[in-house]
Design a protein that fits this description.
The complex is a heterodimer of chains A (151) and B (359).
Chain A (H helix, E strand, L loop, with lengths): L4 E5 L5 H10 L3 E9 L4 E9 L2 E9 L4 E3 L8 H12 L2 E3 L35 H7 L2 H6 L9
Parallel strand pairs in A: 1-4, 5-6
Antiparallel strand pairs in A: 2-3, 3-4
Chain B lengths: L3 E6 L11 E7 L2 E8 L19 H6 L6 H16 L5 H30 L2 H22 L8 E2 L2 E2 L5 H27 L1 H7 L7 H6 L5 H4 L30 H25 L14 E10 L2 E10 L6 E5 L1 H13 L7 H7 L4 H4 L2
Antiparallel strand pairs in B: 1-2, 2-3, 4-5, 6-7, 7-8
Classes of the chains: A alpha/beta (151), B alpha+beta (359).
Chain lengths: 151, 359
């Protein structure tokens, strides 16, 4: 299976206009998701029409407000409340605003940049031999990953 | 104008196996608005990716839900395989399809039982649960487990089904089908069930589309939408047809699920006939570097498993958008204008899965 998936990068101010256009073209809202980056958030607005998957992506910094699309797609209110509660992103003018009570979590905004620890990308192979000689054997074992998963 | 009162429905209610709450805004006996509340048992499984290697994480995905356990692990594995460009052996794709369709059968029969219990039809509930046991026995014989199957892995499946066992499963299907025909005739023809469901909780085709309905909820309103048409697993080799009804009420949603059980049995037959010989898994090297939205058709509808990795063995993001979450706005729409006595049936015919929602 290899489903073609289009990802369109947008500026925050273009979002509502493009979403309105997709609505007019007959796309349905599939989901709104959010990813935590090092010092920003990536919001994915996914749409579908006749099994064609289209994803609009905007990037916002912590503290930045995002406009709601619930005036266009009524069902977006749940996703927008979810993003507010889990990531701490302020979404303006949501049709049904829970004001932070949709999710009851033990820590506030568990997916915010302050709370999420992103994994480090693997080190380049070219650098590996020099580092290997410098460090003790015990430290080497600790960085190789979980037991039984070495490929 | 009648005075408005708010009646709390849930999180504990006889028809709800899992907690969800609605504030029902009433005018006399009629619901004029409904405000849902979730998150009574939210588990935060998505953040476990920080602590679990992407290969081990399949076991976490497997445990998102008991009824669609296999579907979650399959969706997750598909996303990782797509990112890593893994060509899963064909036999594994067929085996995944067989277990996925068995999961659909068992989930829909379970729903029939729960629905019968809600109507006050205790004997029908018992009969449905008895039939579900037959499917759980097949799970046990083929995977060693009855609920959390744990057979899907990145690169294939953990267990094969040998030819004799596969023939044994196929041989049991006619009996299951005959028993199902017997109880489905009651669901379809019984006067009191029709009286409780026909014309109740109506959703138009347009509303179903714009409100993001998925699965049997969408198909009962006339939307021929089924993610199996994307051709994942072995569905590209099988004759999949969308089960569609047009009336959009609770009865239509019940009919769709009943007809889907028989269609799933047919798909299992097809898969068992066409399954090729060969390996059922392959060794996976490396780690995912990229992102993918995996879409599959669960018993309750389209589910999305989003995976993003940067080449390390720990993923950057795992997100699940479950069908129940997508169906909640339509449920609110269906509740508006209904009588208070119909609320349990409307909520039930959505087949809400709160364990999925509270992933």
């Amino acid at each position: 299976m290899s489903e073609p998936q289009e990802i369109v990068l947008l500026g925050k101010n273009e979002l509502v206009g493009v979403v309105a256009q997709l609505y007019a073209e007959g796309y349905r809202l599939v989901q709104i998701g959010c990813n935590t980056l090092r010092a920003a958030y990536e919001l994915n607005y996914s749409f579908d029409k006749d099994y064609l998957f289209k994803n609009l992506r905007i990037t916002v910094t912590p503290g930045e407000e995002v406009p709601s699309i619930s005036a266009i797609y009524q069902n977006s209110f749940l996703y927008e409340n979810e993003i507010h509660d889990l990531f701490g992103i302020a979404v303006t003018n949501i049709s049904v605003d829970y004001h932070g009570t949709l999710y009851r979590t033990s820590i506030k905004t568990p997916f915010s940049v302050d709370n999420v620890r992103l994994p480090e990308p693997p080190k380049q192979k070219a650098e590996a031999p020099a580092q290997k000689e410098d460090r003790p054997r015990q430290q080497e074992a600790e960085t190789e990953g979980p037991e039984g998963q070495k490929e | 104008m009648a005075r408005k009162t708010i009646i709390p429905f849930g999180p504990q209610h006889p028809v709800l196996p899992e907690p969800i709450h609605f504030d029902l805004v009433m005018e006399d006996e009629t619901v004029v608005d409904a405000v849902p509340s979730i998150s009574y048992v939210h588990r935060g499984l998505e953040r476990l990716i920080e602590k679990r290697d992407f290969v081990d994480f399949v076991h976490v995905a497997d445990r998102i839900c008991g009824l669609c356990s296999f579907m979650h692990s399959m969706g997750y594995c598909q996303a990782v395989e797509e990112i890593m460009g893994i060509e899963v052996p064909e036999r594994a794709l067929y085996l995944r399809t067989i277990w996925a369709e068995l999961s659909r059968v068992h989930s829909h029969i379970f729903w029939l039982g729960v629905a019968a219990d809600a109507f006050g039809f205790e004997s029908l509930f018992m009969q449905s649960m008895r039939l579900r046991e037959a499917v759980l026995d097949v799970f046990e014989a083929t995977t060693g487990a009855r609920v959390i199957l744990g057979v899907c892995k990145v690169g294939g499946v953990r267990r094969d089904i040998d030819t004799d066992t596969l023939h044994g499963i196929v041989d049991r299907l006619p009996t299951l089908k005959a028993n199902l025909e017997e109880i489905s005739a009651v669901f379809i023809n019984d006067y009191s069930i029709q009286h409780r469901l026909i014309g109740v909780g109506y959703i138009s085709k347009e509303d179903a589309y714009t409100l993001g309905c998925v699965g049997p909820m969408a198909r009962a309103s006339g939307l021929a939408m089924d993610m199996r048409f994307l051709g994942y697993a072995a569905y590209k080799y099988l004759d999949v047809e969308p089960i569609v009804e047009s009336t959009g009420d609770c009865y239509a949603r019940c009919l769709v699920r009943i007809r889907e059980i028989f269609h799933s049995i047919d798909l299992i037959h097809q898969a068992a006939e066409k399954i090729p010989e060969g390996p059922f898994d392959l060794k996976v090297k490396g780690a995912p570097n990229g992102e993918f939205f995996s879409r599959i058709e669960q018993p309750r509808g389209e589910v999305i498993h989003y995976v993003k990795g940067n080449g390390s063995r720990f993923l950057q993001r795992f997100r699940v958008r479950v069908p129940t979450f997508s169906n909640i706005p339509a449920m609110i729409k269906a509740l508006k204008g209904s009588g208070i006595a119909d609320v349990p049936n409307i909520i039930l015919t959505l087949d809400p899965c709160i364990s999925c929602t509270e992933r």
